[in-house]
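Hello, quick one for you while I still have it in my head. My current little project is about how a certain protein chain folds up. You're getting the sequence in one-letter code plus the fold written as tokens. Would you mind checking whether the tokens look sensible for this chain? Here's the protein in full, and shout if anything looks odd to you:
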Amino acid sequence: MAPLSKLTLARLDRAEAHKDPVIERRSKALAGLHQQRLVLAELLEGRVYTVKRRSWRTDSEGNRHLVEKDQLIRPWFLQQDQSWFVQLKYGARTVPLDDHNNAVVVSDLADVANVLDIFEKSIESGHFDQSLAQLAQRNKKLSEARDAADL
């Protein structure tokens, strides 16, 4: 303990630990909506939206190299039966819009932007807070089950 007596000690509580989980879930959903707007804009121009992901690869000699790779972002909207179906996602899960439905139907691809705007306003107003909390809780239960299996 003698070496520690020469140092100034303090207790640090990180600010991230005190963030509101409701705000965090809303932020995650809104970030996904922002990315879907970029996917839609590229699709309307006839291109595919990708993002650059960096990862480490090991070559045949055992050396590690940082490489960039294009990753395709899956759209939350799809065409089926001459209509476009738009879903709201939280991570990989679909957010239920009411008791029975999980998608909005529009007739034209350009109308998808209006649906994304409505989703954004609904998230900001707190309409989906309960659904997002349930989807996030499900994820925590799976994590706890995996952790228990690892023991």
Q: What stands out?
A: The longest helix spans residues 21-44. The longest strand covers residues 50-58. The radius of gyration is 22 Å. The mean pLDDT is 88.
